[in-house]
Amino acid sequence: MSKMLVKLYSIFFMFTLTACAPSTVHLHSYKVPDAKKNEIVMALKATGFKVLISERKPPLLALGSFIIYPKDNGDNDDLVKILNIINEKGYSTGLIAKNRVRNHEYWDSNNIGLYLVETDGLMSMQEQLAAEFAVDISEVEFTSTNCSKLYRLTFDKGGNARVNKIPLLWSRNGDTLSISQQGNRQKFTYSNKYERNGVARELVMQLEPYENSELENIEYLNCKYQSRTPLIE
Prior knowledge:
There is one protein chain. The protein is of the alpha+beta class. Helix content is about 25%, strand content about 35%. The protein is built from five helices and 15 strands. The protein starts with a helix and ends with a strand. Keywords: Signal. It comes from Pseudoalteromonas maricaloris.
């Protein structure tokens, strides 16, 4: 057998294995009873899925349960299987996203994000405000509102942050947030409020910089930043 034929067979074999590889469901949950979660995991595995249980909470509790499904349009077999399983267990989805919801994203079509939220109907405004997603700045993305270019600012729980591709450090004391970058330190005032946007209401989180003449030449440390999260009433 020629080397070319061997190579072609190898490529075909690898493609076949990839095509037949089972999808992995990454299961995130909020207040779902362990017994119910175990039933869903067993049903998913029995249907042929691999299941990984994540400790991360869903990023938008107010939307209820949802799915991030990165497969090609028309390739809905796995989606139908998942929907049938969770519907039988009493869960319905308020959203089916293609690749990303907030900072949860899936681009590999063999990975599917399943987010189950246990609530007694829609959460009240007070419940949403008390929910972790509504006040935890590490679950949202801020964008600049008054600079010459667009800056995207994100935080993680460990004290690291990033504006576009620039690494930063951050800390927070009440309504004062500090950002450091290579010896430069800027303080921001943090605030949040509710605003009406058409028929929906949004939680608006804002960061406003202190006046600091020593940082005038570092634009991204002198921007105002804002994040808007849609809420369900």
